[in-house]
Amino acid sequence: MGEHVIATQDELSNGDRKLVEVEGREIAVFHVNGEYHAYTNWCAHQAGPVCEGKLTGTSDADFDRDSLTVELDWCKEGEVLNCPWHGWEYDVTDGTCLSKEKVQLPSHSIKVENGEVILTL
Amino acid sequence: MSETAQHATSETTVIDTDVHITVEEETVAEYMDEPYRSSITESPHPIFPSSSWDQRMGGKIDDHFSTFTSPDDLLAFQKEFDIEYPIINTFEPLGKFSQPDLAVNLMQAYNDLLFDRFLDDHDFLGLASIATQKPHKAAEELDRVGDEDQIVGVYVGTSGEYPPLGDPEYDVIFQAAEDNDLPMVYHGNGDEFLFDFPMHNKGFNNYFEVQTLGHPWQQMATMSSLIGEGVPEKFPDLDFIFLEAGIGWVPYMMHRMNKIYHMRRSEVPLLEKSPEEYIRDSFYFGSQPLGEPNNPADMKRIVETIGADNLMFATDYPHWDFDHVEELDKYLRNYFTEDERKKVLYETPVKAFNLPL
Ligand code: FES
User: Which first-to-last residue range defines the signal peptide (chain B) (predicted)?
Assistant: First the structure.
């Protein structure tokens, strides 16, 4: 347990990430719209390097039963982390998996003090 | 590849029954004769047919495939995944090529390339590719390369091949495979769904639907044709290996063919026992892509039904739907004995491929 400075605020523009090794674990911190989120680089599917994947958006769909039309919406641009191994999608703002309930990336608490991004492990 | 994958197989010898090496068109062309070589290098459009599906979903899934081209890539993969023996193949299913002579020349080129770039200087194991368009040529090819120790099976894509793969037209291939102590290895494909099921390929709206069906439909068609034509009865020393459709389809096919056999025995008089018995005696299955039931106990039942004597591990690396070893091993460790686990990861493939280990 302890606090670790893993990046400076200046290093991470919006949409950037940094992968670090802390206490033998690979952890990535992501900067998304002024907030910082940290996860272990370990995908719940087959343990792939999820934090090295693309940040993209995803599709949402709504079916209108009366008109029989589907409305497609490309959403969450920059907030969907795709595991590079098989494409599992995670919401990078809270670590939840978009295709499987109760699946969550292992997350870690992050705070910013004096321009430093600090991870508590 | 990353260092983060965590797995527990480092103390177990693992044979991976399905590893693809990527061969670029210009590279295989170097091993071809004219006029076929120029067909590849000078053609104004890619001559290798492919569907237009976006398999990697605009980059959501990484491409490990196009960079996996050299023995060094294979060695790095072995180290990373703790795979002692990868059984490699040159992937491209040859049945989809429209020009039979070109397919035959490609077959020879793929096998020459396999020796030249992978087998001659390393102790890898590999599969000999065949083009089924000209069965006699395929049989000759097996006689040419089949007695090399490092060649451990006959690699056949199951998409684009016509007629279905148990047809008597292929008996010369079965005969050559049996004479050379090589199992037939059938490999399903998603992208090539277009050749077997063109109407469906056009009709579906997303690759989810195509990938769900492509591999198992091709493998079911192949299995049904092999059993229905009595191939295991005609060539009793031949083994049949199925890769890349997972395993859930296998119990279904065994039981369904049993049922139909009992109704229609007179149509298949070569058969002297039930389809299930032939399958248990001489058919083997690679695990990848293992299905993902919501309740793990469902997978336990499927694995139990097939049994450790017929089940083998496969990654399908570097394809984008590959399985990590852990995917199967978590079931093996939790539900099966250490002896059964060793069979699946090592002993069963040694038997199925007659491996010189
Ligand atoms: S390991 Fe992450 S999607 Fe498969």
Answer: none
